Amino acid sequence: MAAKNKTVMDRKSDLELVVTRLFDGPAHIVFEAWSTPALFQRWWFPKSLSMPVRSCEMDIRTGGGYRIEFEMPDGGVMAFFGQYTEVTPPSKIVWTNEEAGAITVTTVTFQDQGGQTLLTFSELYPTKEACDEAITGSAAGLPEQFEQLDGLLTELAA
Predict the structure, then answer these.
(1) pLDDT tens digit string along 17-74?
(2) What's the rounded Cα separation, in Å, for the pair 67 and 38?
(3) Domain spans in the chain, listed from the N-terminal domain onward
């Protein structure tokens, strides 16, 4: 089934990747899906990878931190962690990704557009190589993740 709204990926520079998508739902609801741990873990990781969430700790406030762990098929654990550097409900969340050693900064903005939300997801990588890797790695899963978010938003609206 084709996605109703298209996910658009654009490499802005050697270090920056920007992804945009329109979601059906007001910005405060889309923001809630990003900022409520119980909701976030339902859509964030692509289901096709079959890696269940093991734990999801998110202190979503400026200065707070997060740690999300996934169970890998071999029984190992993959963890993502960092700090929230700016949280402005319901329009913006900025966080660091610190698990790779070098810090990547992610900025997500939520623009209300008459009952829909234009989401802009921007990642600033420490090196060109890290950005290259993300395009074929983690960022490649965003269209599937955003389809999962669409499904959650439909459920929340019901």
Answers:
(1) 999 999 999 999 999 999 999 999 999 888 888 788 899 999 999 999 999 998 888 9
(2) 13
(3) 8-45+88-157
Full-model pTM:
0.92
Nearest C-alpha neighbor of 67 from the set 88, 85, 83, 47: 83
Q: What is the dihedral of CA 153, 82, 90, 157, to 10 degrees?
A: 10
CATH number for the domain running over 8-45+88-157:
3.30.530.20
